[in-house]
Amino acid sequence: MRRITLALLLAGVAAARPAAAQAPEALWYSTDAEASVQSFLANADRISIVAPQSFSMDSVGIIWGRVDARVLATARAKGVKVVPLIVNPGFDQGIFHHVLNNADARRRAVRNITALCRDNRFDGIQFDFENISILDRDAFTAFSREVADSLHRVKCTLSAAVVPRSSDYPGPTSYHKWIFDNWRAAYDYKALSDAMDFISVMTYSQHTRRTPPGPVASYEWMERVIKYVLAQGVPASKLSLGLASYSEYWYPTYDAAGGPRSSGTGLAYSAAMGILTENGVTPTWDDRTKEAFAFWENDGINEFLFLEDARSFTARLPLISQYKLRGYSVWVLGQEDPKVWTTLPAVAK
Prior knowledge:
Order of helices and strands: HEHEEHEEHHEHEHHEHEEEHEEEHHEH
Structural class: alpha/beta
Low-confidence stretches: 1-20
Strand content: 15-25%
């Protein structure tokens, strides 16, 4: 009786102790660029999941691509899960529309995605299907359920990188309506999270080459997106917050087809710092957006740079604990400020 009582007492003490905080899941995207590969090899200990953008799918469900052998070997040695991306090449809307709406292509796609994960012993697959018409929203959800069911049967996970939105209001301008109908609205966040293991919301590229210059990802905008997605019924444990490692450089350009326009170009941290040094400017920290920016004149025309560095990266991490999110998904290895790695918390493995 005394042993039983003591055991129950110890169990009660253990239950009363506060649970250790779950380390955030750290997903980092990679590409075939050598800088991306080398960054993964050097920093695999601080990464939970590596997601190489390695595979493409055509309009009849055929998949091709490969993961760098060095990435695979290091991931398996370091206990990093490998969850490659599958994309519609060039984010071509017509390619994916055909897969979703042609029965043969759809069946072939489900079969090939499952075989890809099973035969290569990947831990899972992440969809990176973008530029999906709002008219294909239900078809995409149904396709995701079919793929998730098939992958789960072979012990693989399914997740998706989804384009963010902060409301169901299309917006006040023709640009807002266009990007809503063709990029943002096709993702039924709740239904996808129900079918999948998690979703990575791509809370970056807030401003695009079709907009005026602006932050890569304003803190306020990111928080609005998080609140909206959670309000749709997505469990926080299934939501990974997108973080940018790249900076954005805005300058005027001209091409024969499109004429003069403003161009926003993503840059690695080292290249961004080089441009700032070349133009003799020091970026200014904006505590509202939690991002540094600079602008300067080039022969009478202003150019802009929005800098993502270790300070801006770590300034966004509290959103994960505040909203009890699963973790974060970073685009992309090889473009980050090297100091990021010295500031990261422990990760879930």
